[in-house]
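Researcher: I need the complex structure. Ligand is iron/sulfur cluster. Inputs:
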Amino acid sequence: MKFPKGVRFQCQRCSRCCKHTEERRRKILLSDLDISRIEKNVGLKGDDFAEPCQESYPFRFLMKMVDGKCVFLDEDKSCKIYELRPLICRCFPFWIERRGNLFEFKASSDCPGIGKGNALDSIPALLV
Ligand code: SF4
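Model: Output:
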């Protein structure tokens, strides 16, 4: 696992990751587990908030967007299902890229929270 040194992150609560921007179309990918967790707790059917897509496993669905924003994004920029949010939202702005046997930890330059706050020097630090 290759982990970049000195990455700093503190969420600025701008909700940029919950909507399309001029530079980027946001794809909020969902797994079966994400779908069932939200369905069970919110009382909606998967079809109400997601549509099938052809992404790599385990992501088989895309969150629906309304006016370029996630269907669960509230007026005040908060997430209506924060405790139930999809895995990909929990991890943003980070992801792991695989190249052969090498796994590389990446951070999105699209997030204004990168470069702010304390340095993260390990993956567990991100998961608290
Ligand atoms: S993770 Fe980044 S893009 Fe998303 S709300 Fe926080 S600062 Fe904004």
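Model: Summary of the prediction. DSSP finds four helices and nine strands in the chain.
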